[in-house]
Amino acid sequence: MHFTGRTWRPPYEANSCIIQLTSGCTYGKCRFCNLYKYEPFRLSPLSGFEEDLAEIKRYQPGVRRIFVTGGNPFALSYEKLKPYVLIVRDYLTKCQTIAMFASIRDIKNKGVWQLNSWREGTNFGDADIY
CB burial class (10 A; 0-12, 13-18, 19+) of residue 15? Predict the structure, then answer.
């Protein structure tokens, strides 16, 4: 598995499979959080992400929920996020939910049609993004 920098999984994701999509945080100015304060935001290469999915498939082929880690992966544009979500369905066919951190700014920057397509699974198989 490819992990760089600090990785944190919230307690409510204890039973989720974890995979890194980003490291660092796009904001890094929260007064209550210093988890990613000195770590620059970066996107994991699609090839490394795919290798991690292959490893998850090998050891946990029936995984139903994954938690995508990083400061706020939802900051990625719809077009940058799309190939990562699509490839999850190629490897983890039973996956029903993809969870990740997001700030309200990141959600606000998405179009309503984008949020609806993710929720309904129209562009991403039947996986949901929360």
Answer: exposed
Question: Stretch 50-63: mean pLDDT, rounded?
Answer: 96
Q: How sure is the predictor about 18, in pLDDT bands with cuts at 50, 70 and 90?
A: very high
| Domain edges within the chain | 20-129
DSSP string, 71-123: S-GGGS-HHHHHHHHHHHHHH-TT--EEEE---HHHHHTS-HHHHHHHHHTSS
Q: Global pTM?
A: 0.84
Give the distance from CA 75 to its chain's centroid: 10
* Measured distance CA(92)–CA(75) in Å, rounded: 23
Domain topology for 20-129: Transcription Regulator spoIIAA (3.30.750)
